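Problem: given the chain below (99 residues), write out its structure.
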Amino acid sequence: MHMLYDSESFVVVHMLPDAVEKKSAQALNDTAPAIPQLARHGFEIVDKRSGKEVYLDGSWAEMFQEQILAWQRDTPTQEEVEDALDRYAGLAQNPVVVH
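Solution.
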């Protein structure tokens, strides 16, 4: 898990797949119960203003990653980043739950 962005309005976290790491740990202790695994990467966007979050995976995550790569090339203003995140925040339905 890597925090990519943190402002007064939003937090963006990149969730990385852990299936390979968990499998090697499981091989060391075959008696351990199965642990849920994140099979592919995704992004969690938290709208601090509303207290809601959205998790993007699959094609949504790929589109969002393309946006991040574009930001790395073009260095947007904070306002441009916040506007883009606000569009994704419109998808947020889940209240934030502390993990």
